[in-house]
Design brief:
The structure holds two protein chains of two kinds. By secondary structure, chain A is mostly helical. Among the domains of chain A are: 79 residues, Alpha-Beta Plaits, CATH 3.30.70; 38 residues. Helix content of chain A is 52%, strand content 12%. A three-stranded antiparallel beta sheet of chain A has the order 1-3-2. In chain A, strand 2 and strand 3 form a beta hairpin. The longest helix of chain A has 24 residues. Chain A is elongated, with a radius of gyration of 40 Å. Chain B is α+β, with helices and mostly antiparallel strands. Chain B has a single domain, classed as 2-Layer Sandwich (Alpha-Beta Plaits), CATH 3.30.70. The radius of gyration of chain B is 15 Å and the shape is globular. Classes of the chains: A mainly alpha, B alpha+beta. At the A-B interface, helix 1 and strand 2 of A face helix 2 of B.
Chain lengths: 188, 83
């Protein structure tokens, strides 16, 4: 008896799907979006449920090979949830400070208002003013910097070309005139 | 002599329901617009969800379910960008 060839096509293996139920009272919705976003390259992510009671996150594999073990994926997703929840907390906690820094930077850039005024404290009174470093005005500091820079020029890069080669060019021109005179005498 | 039918056969479509509490209409529409060349898409704005029906004609390289999943991913990415 001859074996019949199986003509039925093998059905393609369906993509793995994991469902993770998240408690929105523990993890904020922003954290769930953030964690889901991390998996967009590896899985098809779909959100469903009730954002007040329970959120169902479906992760369907795009490619079996890159998707890996379903338990691992679930664990990774839960880790990302914790990660994004913490980030969210930090963002909330530092919101005012961040706003202040950005505001101060913008106002400071305009140059009209001193956004970081120096407040006098009791400790400041004990400081001897002679010990403090002398601060010149901006023009004076710039001039001093320039002169220092000109002084430290061992290769004479900053010296103008005319000054540097003035002596050489004078001696060359004298030699040329002497030669010309000699040739004129010889012709005569 | 029999003539070959030139009418394209429409494959069964796929319906995907986007919960309005997680997805907004603009994000879903923007995501769906990117796939309009690959399938026939119908967007229905229901009370609690935005329903997207995906119908793929014959000789198209991708099936309806794949396109639906891709739309869901794009919609999620849009939502993340908004927040």
């Amino acid at each position: 008896m001859t074996k019949r060839k199986n003509t039925v096509k093998k059905s393609q293996p369906e993509n793995k799907e994991i469902k993770v139920v998240v408690n929105p009272k523990i993890y904020p919705l922003e954290a769930i979006y953030g964690a889901a976003y991390v998996f967009l390259d590896r899985a098809y992510v779909f959100l469903d449920g009730d954002p007040d009671k329970k959120i169902i996150v479906s992760l369907k594999s795009k490619d079996e090979a890159s998707f890996g073990d379903s338990r691992e994926i679930k664990s990774e997703f839960l880790n990302e949830l914790v990660n994004y929840s913490l980030r969210q907390q930090i963002v909330k906690r530092n919101a005012k400070l961040r706003e202040y820094i950005v505001g101060a930077a913008l106002l400071g850039a305009s140059g009209e208002i001193n956004v970081f005024p120096v407040t006098e404290t009791e400790e400041d009174e004990d400081i001897n003013p002679e010990e403090l470093p002398v601060v010149e005005d901006e023009a004076g500091v710039a001039a001093a910097d320039q002169s220092e820079a000109w002084e430290e020029d061992p290769m004479q890069i900053a010296v103008p070309w005319e000054e540097k080669y003035a002596a050489d060019s004078a001696s060359v021109s004298n030699a040329e005139t002497a030669e010309k005179k000699k040739t004129q005498k010889a012709k005569k | 002599m029999t003539l070959k039918s030139t009418a394209s056969r429409v494959q069964p479509g796929r319906l995907i329901r986007f919960n309005k509490k997680f997805y907004n209409r603009e994000s879903v529409a923007k995501a769906a617009r990117q796939f309009k060349g690959l399938a026939r898409l119908e967007i229905d704005d229901a009370r609690a969800s935005i329903n997207v029906s995906v119908f793929v004609k014959d000789k198209k390289p991708f099936d309806a379910s794949l396109i639906a999943d891709e739309i869901a991913n794009r919609a999620l990415a849009e939502m993340k960008a908004i927040l």
